[in-house]
Design a protein that fits this description.
Layout (H helix, E strand, L loop, with lengths): L4 H4 L7 E10 L3 H13 L4 E4 L6 H10 L5 E5 L33 H7 L2 H17 L4 E6 L7 H14 L10 H6 L5 H15 L6 E3 L10 H10 L4 E7 L6 H6 L4 H10 L3 H10 L2 E3 L2 H8 L3
Parallel strand pairs: 1-2, 1-6, 1-7, 2-3, 3-4, 5-6
Helix pairs in contact: 2-11, 5-6, 6-8, 9-12
Length: 298
C-alpha cells in the first residue's frame, strides 16, 4: 500500500495535522497587520495574498522582506464588499466577462459563474500569479477566494495553474456531509476529475479541510474554534482563518465580520490557539512543505 501524504511528509498515519491558513492577506491594511502578526506568533503556519486588492503592494513588500514566510496566491475572481471594490489584474479590456456593471470584479461567486468566460478566467488568474512572482513573493501555493475556482467550468483552469507553475493548490478529499450542510453536495462529483488529475500529476491532495471561519457570535470565538480543532481527524487538513486587526478600517470594510477577524488574529496568533492545538494533540504544517515534496519528484 502506498504511503499516505502524511507519511510522505514524515508524520505517522494516525497523526492529526493542521495547515493553519490565513486567508485574505492584501485585502486591506488591517488584514495585512492581522495575518502577519498571526504568522509571526503562530500557530498560523501560512497564508495567501489577494493580488487584485488595494493593499497587495504592502503585503508583497512584507513578503519580500521576510522570505521565511509561507505565502501563496489567493486567486480572486470576485469583490464581495459594497463600498470597497477592486478590478482585474489583467486589465479590464483583457477580461471583459469578469466585470460587473460598475467595472469591478463581480460581488458574488454566482455572478462570476454566470458571466465569466473560462478563457478569460485563465488570463486573469495567470496574471495574478505572475504579478505576485514579479513582486518578489516566493509563492508556495495557490488557493481560491470564496471557492470560485471550484465551479465546474473553472476547475480545469485551477488545476492547470498547478501544473504550469509547479505549485500545490488547495484541494482536499471532499467531505460529503460537510458539503451537503452548505448546500454544495454536488461539488464532490465536480472535484473527482480534478483530484484524479492532480494525483496523476504528482500534486498533493489533502485529506480534508475546515472552512468554518468567521461563523461565531461575540464571546463564542474560543469555543467555536476549539470545536473546529476537535473535529479534525487523522491526516492533513486545511484549517482556514481570516486574521485581521480590529479598528475603524476593518469596521468600515466588513462590519458583519470585523469582530470575528480580530478574534482569529489573536487566537491563531497567540497562546490560546497554541494551547488549543496542544490540548488536542494536533501538529501543524505549512504549504511550503507540500511544494518541496511536489518539486522533489523532478
Amino acid at each position: 500500500m502506498p504511503p499516505t501524504l502524511a507519511e510522505r511528509l514524515g508524520f505517522d498515519p494516525t497523526d492529526r495535522i493542521a495547515i493553519v491558513h490565513a486567508d485574505d492577506i492584501g485585502m486591506c491594511h488591517a488584514a495585512n497587520e492581522g495575518a502577519f502578526e498571526a504568522l509571526a506568533n503562530g500557530p498560523a503556519t501560512c497564508g495567501s495574498i489577494m493580488v487584485p486588492c488595494p493593499w497587495f503592494r504592502e503585503a508583497a513588500d512584507h513578503a519580500r522582506a521576510h522570505p521565511e514566510l509561507d505565502l501563496g496566491v489567493h486567486l480572486t475572481l470576485n469583490c464581495e464588499w459594497d463600498h470597497y471594490r477592486w478590478g482585474p489584474v489583467a486589465g479590464r479590456s483583457a477580461v471583459p466577462s469578469l466585470l460587473d456593471d460598475q467595472g469591478f470584479l463581480p460581488r458574488t461567486t454566482l455572478e462570476v459563474a454566470q458571466r465569466a468566460r473560462p478563457e478569460e478566467v485563465a488570463v486573469e488568474l495567470r496574471a495574478q500569479v505572475e504579478k505576485a512572482l514579479e513582486a518578489g513573493v516566493d509563492v508556495t501555493h495557490l488557493d481560491s477566494h470564496m471557492g470560485t475556482c471550484f465551479f465546474p467550468q473553472f476547475v480545469d483552469v485551477y488545476g492547470g495553474l498547478a501544473r504550469e507553475f509547479d505549485l500545490p493548490i488547495f484541494a482536499a478529499q471532499p467531505d460529503l456531509a460537510a458539503l451537503e450542510k452548505r448546500g454544495m453536495g454536488g461539488l464532490a462529483k465536480v472535484l473527482e476529475p480534478l483530484l484524479a488529475q492532480m494525483r496523476a500529476d504528482g500534486v498533493p491532495v489533502l485529506d480534508g479541510f475546515d472552512a468554518e471561519s468567521l461563523d461565531f457570535a461575540h464571546g463564542e470565538g474560543e469555543s467555536h474554534n476549539r470545536a473546529r480543532l476537535a473535529g479534525l481527524s487523522s491526516g492533513i487538513h486545511y484549517l482556514i482563518c481570516h486574521p485581521a486587526r480590529g479598528g475603524e478600517e476593518l469596521d468600515a470594510v466588513c462590519p458583519e465580520h470585523a469582530h470575528q477577524r480580530d478574534f482569529e488574529r489573536s487566537f491563531y496568533g497567540g497562546d490560546a490557539g497554541r494551547k488549543a492545538l496542544e490540548d488536542q494533540g494536533i501538529r501543524t504544517l505549512g504549504m511550503r512543505a507540500l511544494r518541496d515534496l511536489m518539486r522533489s519528484r523532478e
